[in-house]
Amino acid sequence: MATRIGIGFSQKTDSLSAIEEAAQQAKKQLEQDRIDAAIIFNTIHYKPEDFLPLAYKTLKFTKFIGCSTAGIIFEDKPHNQGILVAAIYSEEIRFESSSLSHINLQDPQEAGRIMASKAITDFGEEQRKLFFLLTDSLITNHTELIKGIKERLGKDFLIAGACSSDNFQFKKTYQYHQNICMNNGIAGILLGGRLDVAMSLRHGWRPLGKPRNIDKTEANIIKKIQNQEAISLYKEYFEEEAETLSDNPFGQINIRYPLGIKIDSFDEKNKYLLRNTIKILKDGSIVCQDSVPENSEAHIMIGTKDSCLLSAENAARELKEQLGKKTPKFIFVVESLIRHKILGKNVHEEIESIRSFFGTSVPIVGMCSCGEIFSIKAKNNITHTLLHNNSIMLIALT
């Protein structure tokens, strides 16, 4: 039995030339005529309406998903321009893909049910192992979307994924399913068969000061903290500078000081769920990227270059411990754009740290995200699948 992955990468400036080069490299590395599944990532320099039809044809009309990103992880470092194609052949793993567009115009829970139903097809329950999603970072209710998916796949089913990005603009991103290009969409691939999945996630941020109570929320909007307007928490620390949170989602306050929501059922290594601020409303409410539980404790959090690098090392160590003596077929990395900003010229050190645990023979690829979807097994043995911010996520298949 065999599983092979072929990886191609191009930085040619022309969309058609770049996808042709990347796809042909991937096919050559694969050393197989058959392609069972593929993933495509591109930076915003390339037009999906140009390259998707050629990609679909070159990859033999296989099941593939993809998205736009501000950075592609290849050869142990992020690249700010390029197209990556990862093609997979496997006698052990089965793949089914699905997609859904215009998510914000639908009931998110029902959309999740439809999305999962499309991917199940003739998979038997015992064969399903992981549902990997690529979503629009501008979707405002991933929590309900994931809830709908779990209604079809099971409450403890493993779900992981990433939010597409657009080079720090936070305005328009793309998601792909075969030759379909979407905005405000979701593309997913269901993996099953004879494989094992190991996953880890860390963020590296720590709390500042004493906790504050979140008194009132509406979905992804925090209305009141300590019975005051929500922005008062940031004003307490940053005074007038707090107003800049609304001007720039990737400004210094938002990058280094997200909100940390304490989740009591989580273990110590992932005690706080991070939430970035998207904007501040006129009434002082804080708009987050996804929902926030009411009556939970919140902290201002702080992250540094050193804490980011340490968390990447800890994520790799945990993944290695999960794998034991098994060698992964490949490792997929999802790195938050926020971490990318903080680390700057040191960003390659994260991937080098991961590489040090697994040697040079294991392929490592990935993307920079505006949100990371991860399943955490909580203390009560319930699996929580949530959108996270500012994290690094590792997925290994064996």
The largest β sheet comes out as: 8 strands, antiparallel
Overall number of structural domains: 2
- Class based on secondary structure composition and strand pairing: alpha+beta
**Beta-strand proportion:** 35-45%
Low-confidence parts lasting 5 or more residues at pLDDT below 50?
Answer: none
> How many individual helices?
9
User: Could you tell me the number of beta strands?
Assistant: 26
How widely separated are the two ends? 12 Å
Query: Which whole number gives the mean pLDDT?
Result: 91
Summarize the amount of helix as a percent range: 25-40%
Task: Name the shape in a single word.
Answer: globular
Radius of gyration: 20 Å
Can you tell me about this structure?
With 398 residues, the protein is an alpha+beta fold. It folds into 2 domains: 3-201 and 308-397, no CATH class; 206-302, no CATH class. The protein is 25% helix and 37% strand. The protein is built from 9 helices and 26 strands. The strands form 4 sheets. Strands 14, 15, 16, 17, 18, 19, 20 and 21 form an 8-stranded antiparallel β-sheet that branches. Strands 1-6-2-3-10-11 form a 6-stranded mixed β-sheet. Strands 5-4-23-22-26-13 form a 6-stranded mixed β-sheet. A hairpin with a 2-residue loop joins β10 (175-177) and β11. α1 packs parallel to α2, α3 (108-120) runs parallel beside α4 (142-153) and α7 (305-323) packs parallel to α9 (348-358). The model has no long low-confidence stretch (mean pLDDT 91).
